């Protein structure tokens, strides 16, 4: 008996089919996921069950009938000799037992074994070898046909190009899973973060995207890896999977050592349990276990459906979830001013790593969760790097807990936040002096394609901004005169955090390092890693045992630690795991001169210890100075400074078009900057240009015109331009940068070409006009000198030209004007 009506079922089937197809497209073609694999599998299971009840409504291309991927246009298409299938999957033990029942029934007996392996989360690949040589590597595609990615696969170090050994068949195929090791993935993301690029979501999507790159050199840099799990061929001489895997290993293929032959379903269940946690120690992401009938004849007997083999199934581990306590919410300000709230959690072990933070995305998410101070929350780690909060244990809410109040002002600069209609994120509108936004602008200014000052990495720029040396690109050119003060400036990558109310926090490791004596920072780091899952308070208490074990100035160090804990507990403050209020640490050293409360206020206005020390102008003994030095981040040294200044000086030689791109007028890309520079030759003419004159230029549209107007309307921008000009930057084109003219025949003329020309391709005519001193204009107006009339020129254009009295000339006449005939 079904509980859904026919109409409902039909509608739901259509809807599910559409939704699943969309997620398949995102996942396989764009390497993105909007929902978790679990959610996706739920949708697919729902569709399969409805289709079973109402087969009449099943789409003939239903995603339950086909493998989810497809082929692309970027690579040659290759037909698979043996189809590449998907796998059935389940998340439950009951369904696994039901699968085993079906197998037993299908074979008519119970004497079979299961070969179990982990399910590697990567991209399927089929590789064909002929006479011991790798000849072709193809993606799974739609199962029948895939993309030929041989050149890319050949860059993967541990996939053999040639095989050595005995009895290697003349031709065979191997299948495996290409993956990106977690370490490599993290390395790439760390690099991207340092460069201010968007982070990649997870290793699987990255591996998939990498394999489809057009540039094999770029693929080689990514250090992909591969595990093989299938051998196919006519004369491979084995009759079961276990032996096939041993052959693969002998021939030099990379096999994961995690496989096991299980004699019955109960030992499969044991295998599954034994890997549930341990799999997180493996070098790659895995999402389950694949069990396959070991014997090939038995496989044949069981057969296939349209999409999956009946002799194998994947058991998938559900995303793990854990409970944690919300300590505080901090707010990060991005380079564009976008605010992202982050939940600081009491540390909890989840999927093999200690989780201390979770993304909250935006204010809506906080509202949706109805998050309150100190709530017990459920965190889950799916395919994403940063875990998310999936819910709140309302019954455990603390009495009188207040709902999390979203901040109204920017934690970095104090400006009132804005939220545009229809947008989820809040923004800090202070584009000119909010530190992270200045960082975005300066990074753009110094970037390779702009001013090309490569001695100025993110951390150095951040240091200069945080300490008030740079707010505007023009400030860079004034650093030279402040050279002496730069020495000793803090570079503070991971050293500081700001609480939601703007108080400065410093890394716990540096705090412990500075309040103790005779203990190395590396030893402290080791202690903190080993005690990662402890909350801050027991972590600090246990530190006394560590001090004793170190056996250096024990009495004095323990006294310091106790004083520190006392100060910390005495001050009500937001908890940020691994960070402590800077004011408390400084109070340890200069508490006789100033109270913690006062230090705290100062810390709200400053971004480094160096800053605070300068602001208050403490009287410091050499002992106090040493301690403060231990608390500070790395500092600018002489070599760094001269290197940086040299780079800044050299950038003065960049041509006008680069400068125009660098000053950050919205919507001006590299190309547009070049077009505008060539056209107007200097910034003053660009600034004075009328809207009409701008719109006549090929490549300039309304949005750009508006951005230009907005830019030049702001006094601060004009001042910046003047300051930069005074420092010797080029705001006009140099003679030698102008393209060589072929003639002056078209000097001062504004010309449009319309209709099909016989001697020139579409954009070629523009170059020819420019090369002869003329200007190409893209629309009909009175200011035109003439129009070159090509074949089939549009009648309305012609009419307009006649009405405005603009002359039309033929292509032949034009050829004569430029001496080409
Ligand atoms: N989140 C999303 O939006 C989204 C969208 C589409 C697909 N998906 C995920 O992808 C799955 C469907 O992908 P699929 O059809 O490739 O199925 P699958 O990935 O669940 O199973 C088949 C694949 O497993 C791989 N595999 C890994 N280890 C293996 C081993 N030891 N032995 C054999 N095969 C092994 C092979 O590449 C094989 O092609 C879905 O179940 C879902 O989890 C997610
Ligand atoms: Zn701000």
TrEMBL record:
It catalyses: NAD(+) + (deoxyribonucleotide)n-3'-hydroxyl + 5'-phospho-(deoxyribonucleotide)m = (deoxyribonucleotide)n+m + AMP + beta-nicotinamide D-nucleotide. NAD(+) binds at residues 37-41, 86-87, 117, 140, 177, 292, 316. Zn(2+) binds at residues 410, 413, 428, 434. Residues 741-821 form the BRCT domain. InterPro entries: BRCT_dom (IPR001357), BRCT_dom_sf (IPR036420), DisA/LigA_HHH (IPR041663), DNA_ligase (IPR001679), DNA_ligase_AS (IPR018239), DNA_ligase_CS (IPR033136), DNAligase_adenylation (IPR013839), DNAligase_N (IPR013840). Keywords: Coiled coil, DNA damage, DNA repair, DNA replication, Ligase, Magnesium, Manganese, Metal-binding, NAD, Zinc. The keyword DNA damage applies. Its EC number is 6.5.1.2. GO terms for molecular function: DNA ligase (NAD+) activity. SMART domains: BRCT (SM00292), LIGANc (SM00532). The active site is at residue 119. Residues 6-60 form a coiled coil. Its cofactor is Mg(2+); Mn(2+). The keyword NAD applies. It holds the Pfam family BRCT. CDD domains: BRCT_DNA_ligase_like (cd17748), LIGANc (cd00114). Gene3D superfamilies: 5' to 3' exonuclease, C-terminal subdomain, 6.20.10.30, BRCT domain, DNA ligase/mRNA capping enzyme, Helix hairpin bin, Nucleic acid-binding proteins. PANTHER family: CHROMOSOME TRANSMISSION FIDELITY FACTOR 18, DNA LIGASE. Belongs to the NAD-dependent DNA ligase family. LigA subfamily. DNA ligase that catalyzes the formation of phosphodiester linkages between 5'-phosphoryl and 3'-hydroxyl groups in double-stranded DNA using NAD as a coenzyme and as the energy source for the reaction. It is essential for DNA replication and repair of damaged DNA. This is DNA ligase. It comes from Echinicola arenosa. The lineage of its organism: Bacteria, Pseudomonadati, Bacteroidota, Cytophagia, Cytophagales. The gene is ligA.
């Amino acid at each position: 008996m079904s509980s859904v009506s026919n109409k409902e079922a039909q509608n739901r089937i259509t809807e599910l089919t559409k939704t699943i197809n969309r997620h398949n497209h995102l996942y396989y073609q764009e390497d993105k996921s909007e929902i978790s694999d679990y959610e996706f599998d739920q949708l697919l299971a729902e569709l399969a069950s409805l289709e079973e009840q109402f087969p009449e409504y099943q789409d003939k291309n239903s995603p339950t009938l086909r493998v989810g991927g497809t082929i692309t246009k970027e690579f040659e298409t290759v037909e698979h000799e043996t189809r590449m299938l998907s796998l059935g999957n389940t998340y439950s033990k009951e369904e696994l037992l039901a699968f085993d029942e079906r197998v037993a029934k299908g074979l008519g007996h119970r004497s079979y074994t299961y070969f179990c392996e982990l399910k590697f989360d990567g991209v399927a690949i089929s590789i064909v070898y002929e006479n011991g040589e790798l000849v072709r590597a193809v993606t799974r595609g739609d199962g029948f046909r895939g993309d030929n990615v041989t050149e890319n696969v050949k860059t993967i170090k541990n996939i053999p190009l040639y095989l050595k050994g005995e009895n290697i068949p003349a031709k065979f195929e191997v299948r495996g899973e290409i993956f990106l090791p977690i370490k490599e993935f993290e390395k790439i993301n760390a690099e991207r973060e340092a460069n201010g690029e968007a982070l990649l979501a997870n290793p699987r999507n990255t591996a998939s995207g990498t394999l489809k790159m057009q540039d094999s050199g770029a693929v080689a840099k990514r250090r992909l890896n591969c595990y093989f799990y299938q051998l196919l061929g006519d004369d491979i001489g084995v009759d079961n999977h276990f032996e096939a895997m041993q052959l693969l290993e002998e021939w030099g293929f990379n096999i994961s050592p995690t496989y096991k032959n299980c004699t019955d379903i109960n030992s499969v269940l044991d295998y599954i349990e034994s890997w549930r946690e341990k799999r997180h120690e493996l070098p790659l992401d895995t999402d389950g276990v694949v069990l396959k009938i070991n014997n090939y004849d038995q496989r044949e007997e069981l057969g296939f459906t349209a999409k999956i083999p009946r002799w194998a199934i994947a058991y998938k581990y559900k995303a793990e979830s854990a409970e944690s306590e919300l300590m505080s919410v901090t707010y990060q300000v991005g380079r564009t001013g976008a605010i992202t709230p982050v939940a600081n959690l009491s540390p909890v072990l989840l999927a093999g790593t200690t989780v201390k933070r979770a993304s909250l995305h935006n204010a809506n998410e906080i509202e949706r969760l109805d998050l309150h101070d100190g709530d017990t929350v459920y965190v889950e780690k799916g395919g994403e790097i940063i875990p998310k909060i999936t819910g709140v244990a309302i019954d455990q809410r603390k009495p009188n807990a207040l709902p999390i109040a979203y901040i109204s002002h920017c934690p970095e600069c104090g400006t009132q936040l804005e939220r545009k209609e229809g947008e989820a994120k809040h923004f800090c509108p202070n584009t000119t002096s909010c530190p992270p936004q200045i960082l975005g602008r300066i990074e753009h200014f110094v970037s390779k394609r702009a001013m090309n000052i490569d001695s100025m990495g993110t951390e150095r720029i951040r240091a200069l901004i945080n300490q008030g040396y740079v707010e505007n690109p023009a400030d860079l050119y004034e650093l030279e005169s402040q050279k002496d003060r730069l020495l000793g400036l803090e570079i503070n990558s991971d050293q500081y955090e700001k609480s939601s109310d703007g108080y400065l926090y410093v890394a716990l490791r540096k705090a412990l390092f500075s309040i103790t004596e005779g203990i190395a920072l590396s030893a402290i780091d080791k202690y903190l890693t080993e005690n990662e899952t402890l909350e801050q308070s027991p972590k600090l208490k246990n530190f006394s045992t560590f001090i004793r074990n170190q056996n250096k100035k024990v009495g004095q160090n323990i006294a310091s630690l106790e004083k520190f804990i006392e100060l910390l507990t005495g001050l009500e403050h937001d908890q940020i795991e691994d960070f402590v209020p800077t004011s408390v640490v400084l109070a340890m050293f200069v508490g006789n001169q100033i109270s913690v409360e006062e230090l705290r206020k100062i810390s709200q206005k400053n971004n480094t210890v160096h800053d605070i020390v300068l602001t208050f102008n403490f009287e410091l003994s050499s002992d106090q100075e040493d301690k403060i030095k231990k608390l500070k981040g790395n500092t600018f040294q002489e070599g760094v400074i001269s290197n940086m200044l040299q780079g800044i000086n050299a950038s003065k030689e960049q041509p006008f078009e680069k400068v125009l791109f660098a000053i950050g007028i919205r919507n001006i890309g590299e190309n547009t900057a070049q077009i505008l520079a060539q056209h107007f030759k200097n910034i003053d003419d660009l600034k004075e240009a009328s809207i009409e004159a701008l719109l006549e230029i090929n490549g300039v549209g309304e949005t750009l015109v508006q951005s230009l107007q907005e830019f030049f309307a702001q006094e601060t921008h004009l001042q910046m331009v003047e300051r930069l000009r005074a420092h010797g930057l080029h705001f006009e084109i140099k003679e030698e940068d102008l393209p060589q003219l072929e003639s002056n025949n078209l000097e001062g003329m504004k010309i449009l070409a319309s209709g099909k020309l016989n001697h020139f391709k579409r954009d070629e005519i523009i170059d020819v006009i420019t090369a002869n001193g003329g200007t190409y204009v893209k629309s009909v107006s009175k200011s035109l000198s003439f129009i070159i009339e090509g074949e089939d020129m549009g009648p309305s254009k012609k009419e307009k030209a006649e009405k405005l009295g603009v002359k039309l000339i033929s292509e032949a006449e034009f050829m004569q004007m430029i001496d080409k005939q």
